[in-house]
């Protein structure tokens, strides 16, 4: 396998990791592991929005290639991260051909994952637990679970609309506040504060904060600052959405 093919495999693996919520150091480590498995000397630099990779054959240092990949969209899928981790480690024991490797990597988009109903159930259980954690009753937890499942489902189905960064979090937190006040006013009395806290927890950027701290611990200061800033903007958007919804409902109702 030539240098270009190895770098293509490594770059696609890194892209999958980065777009699915992996830490920066893990992406660099995986790329270097894949290149090393095929006797390619490589240097890579990864930030949350891009991957810079160069490599050359250990036998012919003049045969050098550099690749750059811009990352425009990021989501969270720990299942794909785990599969890429297993894939990169398996190459140490068994090298596979270029076609076989690319077939596996490109097939991850259609790889079976958790059933969608389990994701909805997890969102509901998480919101119920957080509502109860803040001293709420079971009925408030159930309402929070209902709202979070509704928000999670709507957010997932409307991802085809390319909203501005952080604007989607603002919209969904705004709708959460409206729903909580509406239910309290016209359906049954609830603790609005605990219901809103439980409902918006599915929007909270927990992975971004965790990865930002872990990147800092590994010395990737630039990536750490980017991820923590992204988390801060997301939290600000969520807070603004809830605050504006409560302010509007105060005067309309």
Automatic annotation (TrEMBL):
It is a multi-pass membrane protein. GO terms for biological process: succinate transport. It holds the Pfam family ThrE. The keyword Membrane applies. Residues 8-248 form the Threonine/serine exporter-like N-terminal domain. The keyword Transcription does not apply. GO terms for cellular component: plasma membrane. Keywords: Cell membrane, Membrane, Transmembrane, Transmembrane helix. InterPro entries: ThrE-like_N, ThrE_Dicarb/AminoAcid_Exp. It is found in: Cell membrane. The chain crosses the membrane at residues 128-154, 160-183, 195-213, 233-252. Its main location: membrane. It comes from the Bacteria. GO terms for molecular function: transmembrane transporter activity. Belongs to the ThrE exporter (TC 2.A.79) family. PANTHER family: SUCCINATE TRANSPORTER SUBUNIT YJJP-RELATED, UPF0442 PROTEIN YJJB-RELATED. This is Uncharacterized membrane protein YjjP, DUF1212 family. It comes from Lutispora thermophila DSM 19022.
